[in-house]
């Protein structure tokens, strides 16, 4: 029995201890913290970096952008240079001259007319020619409505610009127009004066001049057209036929 008590007391001493006041206190056991195992380090990703044509992506795109800018700049420079060169060439080259094209007077050529071609200023000369059978003579008839011209003896003519009354063409009275004479003159006024002079020098039984057609393009009418003159004295007024700017007609009022 004594042995059993001894064992019990010993056990109690193990489980408890007596404090200073004689009271049993539970023994204090401290749990020792077990350290966590060290975290395994994540192995470094040693996969190779992405490359384009042997270059890293940023380097590749930087070079590509620079190359594109260089190409664009070169193209713009070439375009501007070519444009300036063409503009300079256009401004330096003289403007092509437009040759004067003239149609022959519809009046039929006179078989008995003599070719009076001689040297004279070019038809492109700025000043009207006053001699020869080549070039442009003066022509004062440039208005759109009829006007009256009074000859030196008082004879009045009604003028029609840009108009032709061709030989054998329709007359105002329904018959045909006939040429009485063909002359080479250098103004429309001289042509009308020639009609007056013709009437002053004919016999009583001869047909008087009643109208004229004048063409200032000597080259077209005489040198090329072989009309035998550029002033045509006519026996009557014709039906107006629209003609080129160098042509004009008039009749005695």
UniProtKB/TrEMBL annotation:
Bias (Basic and acidic residues) ranges: 39-48
UniProt KW Transmembrane keyword: yes
Entry's transmembrane regions: 59-84
InterPro entries xrefs: Pan_app
Chain spans, region Disordered: 22-48, 85-131
Annotated keywords: Membrane, Transmembrane, Transmembrane helix
Span of domain Apple: 161-253
PROSITE patterns registered for this protein in UniProt: PAN (PS50948)
Composition bias, Low complexity: 89-131
The keyword Ion transport is annotated on this UniProt entry: no
Protein name as it appears in the record: Apple domain-containing protein
Organism per entry: Corynascus novoguineensis
């Amino acid at each position: 029995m004594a042995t059993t008590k001894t064992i019990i007391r010993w056990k109690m001493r193990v489980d408890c201890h007596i404090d200073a006041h004689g009271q049993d206190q539970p023994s204090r056991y401290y749990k020792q913290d077990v350290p966590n195992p060290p975290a395994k380090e994540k192995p470094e990703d040693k996969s190779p970096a992405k490359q384009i044509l042997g270059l890293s992506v940023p380097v590749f795109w930087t070079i590509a952008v620079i190359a594109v800018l260089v190409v664009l700049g070169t193209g713009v420079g070439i375009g501007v240079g070519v444009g300036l060169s063409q503009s300079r060439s256009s401004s330096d080259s003289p403007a092509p001259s437009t040759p004067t094209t003239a149609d022959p007077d519809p009046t039929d050529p006179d078989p008995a007319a003599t070719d009076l071609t001689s040297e004279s200023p070019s038809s492109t000369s700025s000043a009207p020619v006053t001699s020869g059978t080549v070039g442009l003579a003066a022509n004062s008839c440039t208005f759109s409505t009829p006007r009256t011209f009074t000859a030196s003896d008082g004879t009045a003519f009604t003028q029609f610009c840009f108009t032709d009354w061709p030989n054998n063409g329709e007359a105002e009275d329904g018959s045909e127009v006939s040429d009485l004479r063909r002359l080479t003159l250098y103004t429309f006024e001289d042509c009308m004066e020639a009609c007056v002079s013709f009437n002053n020098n004919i016999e009583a039984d001869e047909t008087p001049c009643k109208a004229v057609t004048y063409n200032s393009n000597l080259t077209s009418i005489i040198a090329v057209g072989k009309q035998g003159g550029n002033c045509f004295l006519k026996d009557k007024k014709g039906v107006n036929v629209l003609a080129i700017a160098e042509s004009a007609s008039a009749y005695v009022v």
